[in-house]
Amino acid sequence: MYDRGLSVLEQYGLEAKSTYRGRGALICDTQAGLVQIREYNGSPRKLGYQAKLLEIVSTRNQISVDSLLPNQEGAYVSADKDNIPYVVKRWYEGRECDTQSMKDIKRSVTALASLHKTMKMPVQTHYVKEPLLMEYERKNRELRKIRKFVCQKRRKNDFELRYLDSIACYLWHAEEAQRRLNCSDYEDLRCRSLETGDVCHGEYNQHNVLMLAQNTAVINFDRWHYDVQMEDLYQFMRKILEKHNWDLEMGRQMLLAYHEEKPMNVQELENLRIRFAYPEKFWKLANYYYSHSKAWISEKNLEKLEKLIAQHDNWMNFVENISV
After folding, report:
1. For 17-73, what is each residue's pLDDT tens digit?
2. Of 122, 127, 109, 130, which Cα lies nearest the Cα of 204?
3. What is the Cα–Cα distance from 158 to 162, expressed in whole angstroms?
4. Residue 40: which of 64, 71, 18 has the closest Cα?
5. Which helix (H) or strand (E) element contains residue 143?
6. What domain of life does the UniProt record list for this protein's source (predicted)?
7. I want to staple 11 with a disulfide (CB 3.0 to 4.6 A). Which of 41, 71, 126, 226 is the partner?
8. Looking at residue 12, what DSSP letter applies?
9. Would you say the C-alpha torsion 270, 272, 275, 276 has a positive or negative sign?
10. Burial degree of 181 (CB within 10 A; 0-12, 13-18, 19+)
11. Cβ atoms of 263 and 230 closer than 8 Å
């Protein structure tokens, strides 16, 4: 199991001097440097566009990325003797962004802004994310459906009781964010983003940013898509700020780090504020509850809900006061 997929290196003319495990992958030291071997179950077509995207970034940007390597036949997917598909990528020796280090956090945000300046490709309709307004409408319908489901249960566990206590507040926030988005210039912002072919990383978090000795590496672009790039910044900031109880000054420093590298216009800032105003974590907890076994609820999920509720006032203070 340790060396699973190692045999595909032959198709690249590479030999492994040593190997070790990474996150769900095998890291190999070869004559061409470090490479990662990872099982791949996605679309070869999207992978081809991903290779083009990473080529664009690597030639126009100082940020290192895990570029895809073609095998000796020019393909990006290689099957081993058991016919399991793998991809091989360039890899880097570095540590993940430390979410307790403001230096690492600002460095990660600056790297994202730098990436956003070069992550542009002619739009392929298949990979355009659904409009945010449709996403909020869908999620709000789901919240109302889950509320109805829980209300109709005769016996309710602790999670369900706490959920019912808080749903009115968070559903109001969700519907207000939808209303604000509908009244904003979002459609114009999205149209301009698609016109310029703006691409999002899709999963920009601390695990996908590596601190190298000389620069920063960004990895795991598998969820890339076309959308307003504020989505990436929002996702990264939200994950960090949830860990720091929505610290307003920390948020301002992150925004400033991004803005100094890639200035944000008024529409982008407003879009970011609206994203922060949506109770994403509350929806995630409710959705996880509804889509998994409801006969037994993990204490961890109840703890997450309690923590979320405890952070409500700090979250609201952040939403109302955040600015560059």
Report:
1. 999 888 889 999 999 999 999 999 999 999 999 999 999 999 998 899 999 999 999
2. 109
3. 6
4. 71
5. helix 132-152
6. Bacteria
7. 71
8. G
9. negative
10. buried
11. no
Distance CA 226, CA 266 (A): 21
Task: Write the DSSP symbol of residue 196.
Answer: T
Token output for 108: 């990660």
Q: What is the DSSP string of 152-210?
A: H-SS--HHHHHHHHHHHHHHHHHHHHHHHHHHTTHHHHHHHHHHTTBEE-S--SGGGEE
**Predicted TM-score (pTM) of this structure:** 0.94
Q: How many CB atoms lie within 10 A of CB 191?
A: 12
**Is 117 within 8 Å of 127 (Cβ atoms)?**
no
pLDDT score for 294:
64
Rg (CA), the chain: 22
Q: How many residues does the chain have?
A: 324
pLDDT digits (tens, 9 = 90+) for 228-282: 999 999 999 999 999 999 999 999 999 999 999 999 999 999 999 999 999 999 9
What's the order of all strands across the beta sheet hosting 64-65? 64-65, 216-218, 209-211, 95-96
Nearby residues of 271 by Cβ (< 8 Å), 6 or more positions away: 184, 186, 189, 228, 230
pLDDT tens digits, residue range 164-191?
A: 999 999 999 999 999 999 999 999 999 9
> Which residue, chain included where needed, has tokens 């590298």?
261
CA–CA distance from 268 to each of 18, 137, 177, 273, 319 (Å)? 46, 21, 15, 9, 15
- Amino acid residing at 221: F
